[in-house]
């Protein structure tokens, strides 16, 4: 891959607003960008959710559906007046269907620098194992 191609791939994406999302609270709903990786032990999902505090994120797993929600609260205090605001506040929302191989009881989550990382371990039965051949 050339340097030009790499720089194109690494461009910062703006927040993408969910189209037609139904909601019960006013304000925009954004779709967090995600990267998903898999190895023999599990799946790692990294979701960009800048501006969201740990207490404002909800991770819900029901019937093989993983739902991520979060709220970006305004940064200014009540006694401050906006002069220029380019960073939009609102909510994040995204759902994923989990494969049967994920052990849903052992899902782990961490938030660091605006990136939510979920580790979705595979169930023991789904992990690859080597079968040894016995010599007679």
TrEMBL record:
Residues 1-16 have a biased composition (Basic and acidic residues). Residues 1-31 are annotated as: Disordered. It holds the Pfam family HSP20. CDD domains: ACD_sHsps-like (cd06464). InterPro entries: A-crystallin/Hsp20_dom, HSP20-like_chaperone, Small_HSP. Residues 25-136 form the SHSP domain. Transmembrane segments: none annotated. Belongs to the small heat shock protein (HSP20) family. This is HSP20 family molecular chaperone IbpA.
